[in-house]
Amino acid sequence: MKTKTLIWAWPTRAFHWLLAVGFTSAYILGDFDDYRQFHFAFGSMVGVLVAMRIIYGLIGPRFSRFSQFPIGLSNQVEFVKSIRIGKTIFHGHNPLASLVMLGILFIGILTSLSGYLMYLSESQSYTFVFGGEFLEEVHEVFANLFLGLVIFHLVGVLVDLILHGKKGAFGSIFSGFKNIETKPATANIFHQLFGIIWIIAAFVIFYLAFNLQPLLKDNNKTDNQSKYERLKVDDD
């Protein structure tokens, strides 16, 4: 009988899937003006999810804490050597996945923050020295970096599934369990309460961002055109 051990408690799994839905939706809807409010909402939700994941990385259960991420150079070398044979067992994130995860959190915060600053600039609530076009370019760079990290993560999952599928790493993001023997990462009452607050905060910020005042840039442009047309008629 195979030994199954809880590696990812439910708050970690909930974060994973909410982040996947939030980023995918925000990235796709970013090119559609008619769905701009949804883009704001999903992007803001991603920011809150990532911010609270950083806190969870300090206080969460085993394997979800950053202190358990094997990011050292020696671990990276050991992992590369063991990719094919799978001799070395990493119970939580493997060394490369740990780096990707940290990158996603770091870039995720910058993507959401730059998006919010861009909204403030385009809504004409604030005027920044570097201008709205600069913020738009920065936001797009961060979003594409985020996408690149996600693709890299998916490739890593596929490779791990092909080479080490028996360990159940792929299925663990659904069930939380891996086919390995180690001390389980059980979430205590505090972790579970934090997880509930985490999810509620994500949906609250989604609602608030969705109801932000629509951008006035296009409306102002239309108003200026109307004034110009009226002046032209009066001159004639």
Short descriptors:
236 residues, two-stranded antiparallel ribbon, 2 strands, single chain, 8 helices, Fumarate Reductase Cytochrome B subunit
DSSP strand (E) fraction? under 5%
State the end-to-end distance.
Answer: 90 Å
User: How many domains comprise the coordinates?
Assistant: 1
Helical fraction: 55-70%
Run of helices and strands: EHHHHHHEHH
Summarize the structure.
This protein is mainly alpha-helical and 236 residues long.
Give a structural overview.
With 236 residues, the protein is mostly helical. The protein has one domain: Fumarate Reductase Cytochrome B subunit, CATH 1.20.950. It contains 8 helices and 2 strands. Strands 1-2 form a two-stranded antiparallel sheet. Helix 1 packs antiparallel against helix 2, helix 2 crosses helix 4 and helix 2 packs antiparallel against helix 7. The chain is globular and about 60 Å long. About 7% of the residues have low confidence.
